[in-house]
């Protein structure tokens, strides 16, 4: 049986992925198939197996070439970031502490106090972006009780293109989320949270993921489901990848609910 016929026989629902044994090399649980709705993509994650390809609507040929895309070897832009005088200890703001407690960040905050600051000038919680033991960037979450329409909810302080990663060397499984608070919440279930700080997967993000993790789960909000599918399509060529379309904001989930979503 051709690989494309095998993939078709799995009847993978749109927006989901399947993991199983590879029909080409026999690798146990090494073969992944994702149905994006526009494409059916497959890949074996064993380095000595060449089972990788895609089928687009209207095409039927078997392909052993990974999908082409943007340059996957783009260099990381890493600039050291100096902390401005307006950054103080987070304990200076009761509102900031309350935000962390309400948004699933409290456990991560208590274990890594140095990753957080409070920006007195902008009334923001500062989530520091570290990479290879260097402070390279930071993102700030505005916590005004009455939102200022002239100020964005999130702002980035530096100019690096590194994602916000909660634990670079602690876990081998990563969960891709949109914002830093959601990434912190993921730590409760012993996985690294990786915040893209948006819904676009950059080449620099891909480089960090490939070099530091063994598998990833794309976990974006329901209104970004199209982005989730496209992202998973690109990621699965490089890493074992799963998708979770959220019905509820990940930051609002309990530890037990998170475990259920990510099991």
Write the topology of this structure.
Elements lengths: L2 H7 L6 E5 L10 E5 L3 E6 L7 E5 L30 E2 L5 H9 L3 H6 L4 E4 L4 E8 L2 E9 L11 E3 L7 E2 L7 E5 L2 H7 L5 E4 L7 H10 L2 E7 L3 H11 L5 E6 L8 H8 L1
Parallel strand pairs: 11-12, 11-13, 13-14
Antiparallel strand pairs: 1-2, 2-3, 3-4, 5-6, 6-7, 7-8, 8-9, 10-12
Summed up:
The protein is an alpha+beta fold. Helix content is 22%, strand content 27%.
Write up this protein:
There is one protein chain. The chain has two domains: 1-68, no CATH class; 70-263, no CATH class. It is built from seven helices and 14 strands. It has helices spanning 3-9, 94-102, 106-111, 180-186, 203-212, 225-235, 255-262, and strands at residues 16-20, 31-35, 39-44, 52-56, 87-88, 116-119, 124-131, 134-142, 154-156, 164-165, 173-177, 192-195, 215-221, 241-246. The strands form three sheets. A five-stranded antiparallel beta sheet has the order 5-6-7-8-9, with no helix packed on it. β7 and β8 form a beta hairpin. The longest helix is centred in the last third of the chain and has 11 residues, at 225-235. The chain is elongated and about 65 Å long. Mean pLDDT is 84; it is low at 57-73.
End-to-end Cα distance: 32 Å
Helix content estimate: 10-25%
Radius of gyration: 20 Å
Helix tally?
Answer: 7
Number of domains: 2
Oligomer: single chain
Poorly predicted tracts of residues: 57-73
Main sheet strand line-up = 5-6-7-8-9
Structural class: alpha+beta
What global shape is seen?
elongated
- For the secondary structure, the number of strands is 14
